[in-house]
């Protein structure tokens, strides 16, 4: 099967030099490297922080949150109560 991939130029040059040094083709180097990578057990990438952990609030929204303008007021219904009401009422 044929495929096309983009290889950063510095990596391509290193692979091409290795191929020349070992008397192989670039194709052989790439296939052998890929086989070595896939031989062992799969490795799990380090757990990075999620999108939600890295997101930034819009400055106006952040200002409102810090000022307490978005805090629940006495008598406000919780989201759980609202969801329960929606689930209990079959009519849209």
Characterization of this structure:
The chain is mainly alpha-helical and 92 residues long. It has a domain at 9-39. 55% of the residues lie in helices and 0% in strands. The protein contains five helices and no strands. Helix 1 (9-22) packs across helix 2. It starts with 8 loop residues before the first helix and ends with a helix.
- The percent range for helix content is 55-70%
Measured distance between first and last alpha carbons: 52 Å
Secondary-structure element sequence?
HHHHH
Low-confidence stretches: none
Structural class: mainly alpha
How would a textbook summarize the main sheet?
none
User: What is the count of β-strands?
Assistant: 0
Question: What number is the mean pLDDT?
Answer: 88
What's the helix count? 5
Principal-axis shape equals elongated
Rg calculated over all Cα atoms: 28 Å
**Percentage beta strand:** under 5%
List the helices and strands and how they pair.
Elements: H1 9-22, H2 26-39, H3 51-54, H4 59-67, H5 79-88
Helix pairs in contact: 1-2
Please summarize what this structure is.
The protein has helices at 9-22, 26-39, 51-54, 59-67, 79-88. It is 55% helix and 0% strand.
